């Protein structure tokens, strides 16, 4: 399974960050799989943001739930992260992952700055 993140590398404060994870070598509708988003701010640890299951159900980190939305496009075998009202504290490398397995995207740096 291969995962690849894509999206803007620079987002302005108060805007919505949007990233897409394209999956190949496996289907996002495979029963029992959860596809997650994780981020790592500079100099800090990994933070799980949320996930979408094979049925389309979602779950989010309580600390980010009010600003986070994860959706999917099964026809393209991809899932998307949206994080609203971003601040410079949301600057991080964002990863997508097949949860509970060692399949990760390479990560993409998103900088929040005016």
Describe it for me?
- The protein has 114 residues and is mainly β.
- It has strands at 2-6, 10-11, 17-24, 34-40, 47-53, 58-60, 68-73, 78-83, 92-98, 103-104, 108-112.
- Strands 2, 4, 5, 6, 9, 10 and 11 form a seven-stranded mixed β-sheet that branches.
Topology, pairings included?
Elements: E1 2-6, E2 10-11, E3 17-24, E4 34-40, E5 47-53, E6 58-60, E7 68-73, E8 78-83, E9 92-98, E10 103-104, E11 108-112
Parallel strand pairs: 2-11
Antiparallel strand pairs: 1-3, 3-8, 4-5, 4-9, 5-6, 7-8, 9-10, 9-11
Residue runs with pLDDT of under 50 for 5 or more positions = none
Any idea what the shape is? globular
Q: For the terminal residues, how far apart are their CA atoms?
A: 36 Å
- Summarize the biggest pleated sheet: 7 strands, mixed
Helix content estimate: under 10%
Spell out the helices and strands N to C. Answer: EEEEEEEEEEE
Radius of gyration: 13 Å
Helical/strand content category: mainly beta
Number of helical regions: 0
Strand percentage lies at: over 45%
Q: What's the short version?
A:
This protein has strands at 2-6, 10-11, 17-24, 34-40, 47-53, 58-60, 68-73, 78-83, 92-98, 103-104, 108-112. Helices cover 0% and strands 51% of the residues.
Note the main attributes of this structure.
114 residues; mainly beta; 7-stranded mixed beta sheet; 4-stranded antiparallel beta sheet; 11 strands; 0% helix; 51% strand; globular
